Amino acid sequence: MSDLRVLRVLRVTQVTPLMRRITLGGPELAGFGTGPNLKVLIPPAGEPDPQWPVDGPDGRPVWPAERGPTVRTYTVRRYDERAGELDVDFVMHGDHGVASAWAGRAVPGDPVAVAGPGGRDFGEADWYMIAGDHTSLPVISTIVERMAPDARGHVFIEVPSAEEEQPLSPPEGVRLTWLHHGDAPAGSTTLLRDAVTAVPWPEDGERVFGWVSGESSAVRELRAYFRDERKLHRRQYVAIGYWRRGLDEHDYHEQFDNDRDADYFRAGREERGEPTQP
Description:
This protein is of the alpha/beta class.
């Protein structure tokens, strides 16, 4: 893979009881680009010398027949070019997920590879509506940190409890609200939908941008709300699913493509200045 970078774990930080930060680094991190998403290639448990995919004659990656990695998609929490560090935050599920299990046992020196970054970024606006669940917290944190000082709007983040809240400092005009689903299973509530749809939106003429990410059902509902009720243009919002109840990431991607629709890809081409069809 042409954009594959083999890195090492530099340190592990327990941010909250259920969120673990893995800081990666190594010579191949130099020149890491921009974009919210990256692929994390997780080696098999107990494999000190994993095999990584390579580019085949036709340019497509050729995956190893054995001792190969499992791919999962995550978001970039922090990239510090000067320090040569990349932070990736993992929601911990014990051994119920490949990525969570790896993050739970990771120690400095462990090998791991990443590919990317890529994906649509948040757009500049005067007023924001940002919503996401626990898995969205890393990317929403970076969005909040990059907002202009005079930005206005709302940020809603659904987490299990107050223990999973993290210190964020949005601009004075942006209201941050934490939503707790408590004993209800993650992704089973309407907390995000109810919170977003209850907020008065600004008058016409202001630049508005919406972002929603997390479990599939919330992403689908709020994408429809942004597009059909709030009449946002496809470049005025990003709606992308990170997971779907009852499916692992591979099946979710294969069956639903992370709930990315034609407008998502059309908007991405427009943002890159590529020709598109109406």
